[in-house]
Amino acid sequence: MRIATFNVNGIKTRLPNLLEWLEREQPDVACLQELKALDTAFPKAELLEAGYHALWKGQRSWNGVAILSRSPAIEVRRELPGDPGDDHSRYLEAAVDGVLIACLYLPNGNPQPGPKFDYKLAWFERLIQHAESLVNGEHPVVLAGDFNVVPTDFDIYNPRSWKKDALLQPESRECYERLLAQGWTDSLRHLFPDEPVFTFWDYFRQHWERNAGLRIDHLLLHPSLAPRLKAAGVDTWVRGQPHASDHAPTWIELADAPAAKAAARKTTRRKKP
User: Fold this and answer.
1) Catalytic annotation on 217?
2) Percentage, residues of the chain above pLDDT 70
């Protein structure tokens, strides 16, 4: 099972890029962020023609999340608990083929200090609280999305010019560390502990051309899923396409669950003459 996360940075303007990626890479599940579109403008028909069912929660400006899946998904939750007055479209949760997928778009928080950074930290605290209930449950869960956090200095090409950015602040990183301490596995860093891996390249100062990137898109695995992690990567070719998002799709591949493997072996044995 291949699960991906991709901040599309505008689903209407970058739909050709999205469709090309889906056709070429064929993820089973794709979590999208920053749709920048109202619900009525979501390209449901085009995605269905490409072979993907969709759940989405749109919004104008910088928000909006969606879960695409080859198998129909069962929607579980459309908002992050903890603040009924929060009207940002930043969280969507659905069950797909026995795995609970949580698609999130954590606030950027800039400029900091200020109300936007306060909102980022408050949202992060709500995520930590909700994630604790998920990690302590029996259901396999993937937390996937644009976390807007660079976990360590190893996750950025050069931290010097970003020291004042909300993505690198000690408070942001401490929240991410507390989240992982619940028992989540940072899939990319788990498989590539000693290699620089980037998922975002700013549009300015030739960051893409110089591979001056950041790692802010993460896929965190429930303890029951961590042993099933087979592979992970970043589809960097997408970032090099014309009119590309400043993010590249990030993905993991999970082995089949033991029960599914056993059922498959049983079916195979029955088919033998």
Assistant:
1) no
2) 95
pLDDT at 262: 42
Known catalytic residue at 105: yes
Task: Indicate if 176 belongs to the active site.
Answer: no
- CB-based contact 215:236 (threshold 8 Å): no
| pTM of the full structure | 0.93
Which position among 28, 146, 155, 186 bears the catalytic label? 146
C-alpha R_g of the chain: 18
The residue from 52, 91, 105, 176 that is catalytic is 105
Task: Please say whether the dihedral angle defined by the alpha carbons of residues 105, 107, 36 and 85, taken in this order, is positive or negative.
Answer: positive
- 217 known ligand binder: no
On average, the pLDDT of the chain sits at 94
CA 15 to chain centre: 18
Give the containing element (helix H, strand E) for 264: helix 258-271
Q: Which domains does the chain have, with CATH numbers?
A: 2-271 (3.60.10.10)
pLDDT in tens, 217-246: 999 999 999 999 999 999 999 999 999 999
Residue 148 marked in a binding site: yes
pLDDT at site 272? 34
